[in-house]
Amino acid sequence: MYWVNGEYQKTAQVVDIADRGFLLGDGVFETILIRNGVGAFLGQHLARLHHSLEVLEISVPNFPDLEPIIAHLATECVIEGDGVARVTISRGASGRGLAFAPIQKSSPTMLVTVQSGVKRSAVPISVMVSSFCRPEKSISARHKTLNYLDNILARNEAMSNGVDEAIMLNGHGRLACASVANIFVIDQEGKLSTPPIAEGALPGIVRKKILEAGEQIDVAVREAPLETNILERNFIFLTNSLIGVRQAQVTGEGVSPVVPKAIETFQRLQSWYENCVSEDISRKARIS
Q1: What number of CA atoms fall less than 13 Å from residue 196's CA on the CB side?
Q2: Residue 139: in which H helix or E strand, if any?
Q3: What's the Cα-to-Cα distance from 79 to each of 37, 115, 187, rounded to whole Å?
Q4: Which of 6, 108, 152, 270 lies deepest, with the highest CB count within 10 Å?
Q5: How many CB atoms lie within 10 A of CB 228?
Q6: What is the mean pLDDT, run by run of 10 residues, along the chain of 288 residues?
Q7: How far is residue 32's CA from residue 53's CA, in Å, rounded to a whole number?
Q8: Are 134 and 169 in contact (CB under 8 A)?
Q9: How much is the pLDDT for 103?
Q10: Domain ranges of the chain
């Protein structure tokens, strides 16, 4: 079952052949962790989604309340434990060409789906530096648009080489992010660094939480341009809404040196973040 344009559907529905999301990747999406039918940090996801819609000039009249929709879909689809909800919005159908109709005349397509199978693991994610570049000045670097081709090719390159994830560099050859995650580095003193948004990093929901952790649990964290050689001598971890906070290991580098301070910092962050998720889910469950 899924929800599309105000209705729950159980049978496959064909997207309009003139839909700009299908033809041009003209739209945005959000991927949300759901636990026991509740979307984690749903408010933050919606804030980012609305910002992207505003930037792309896509208007969604009578934007629905997604909490009950996600909860209903999770129940109908028998999502037990952790699952994932995806909200996809395209500009909708239009005539041929790149130009789109005035915002008052647009009729967007909105789709909500849920799936099970989200699993956490303590095994480090294997990563490699991709040959595909992250265009740091592109609109697609700052918003989760439906045009994900660079990320798709980077991820496929990694998997073709027997690696889990691809680290993408920007046009200056510096770290930007992974194909579906933000990247953080912990030095031997336990200090965190992550690429700024201007370097091509997506403004991730978990990324923002980790930046907030600096003040809340007394962890030194900074946004700064990062050269690739920083991967060779430091502790690395990735973040996104589904994997949470997870250690990464560059292929071909062997086992990372055991740096007690870095490991201690990582474990504190991981534990703090999981508590944040649990508290957010519990608070929403009490309200409902």
Answers
A1: 7
A2: helix 139-142
A3: 7, 7, 39
A4: 108
A5: 13
A6: 92 84 95 95 97 94 94 91 95 86 77 90 93 95 95 98 98 98 93 96 97 87 95 92 95 66 93 95 74
A7: 17
A8: yes
A9: 61
A10: 2-116, 125-278
Q: pTM for this structure? A: 0.93
CB crowding 126-136: b at 16 or more within 10 Å, else e: bbbbbebbbeb
User: Which helix (H) or strand (E) is 283 found in, with range?
Assistant: helix 260-287
Of 236, 253, 254, 232, nearest in space to 245 by CA: 236
Instruction: Please tell me the CATH superfamily of domain 125-278, with its number.
Output: D-amino Acid Aminotransferase, subunit A, domain 2 (3.20.10.10)
Query: DSSP string of 190-201?
Result: S-EEE--GGGT-
pLDDT tens-digit series, residues 212-226: 988 788 899 999 999
The CATH class of 2-116 is alpha beta
Structure tokens at 69: 């929709």
247 within 8 A of 266, measured Cβ to Cβ? yes
Provide the token pair at 253: 């580098």
Of the candidates 118, 149, 137, 111, the one whose C-alpha atom is nearest the C-alpha of residue 19 is: 111
Instruction: Extract the tokens encoding 263.
Output: 């490991």
Give the pLDDT confidence of 98-122 residue by residue, as tens digits: 888 776 567 899 999 999 988 888 8
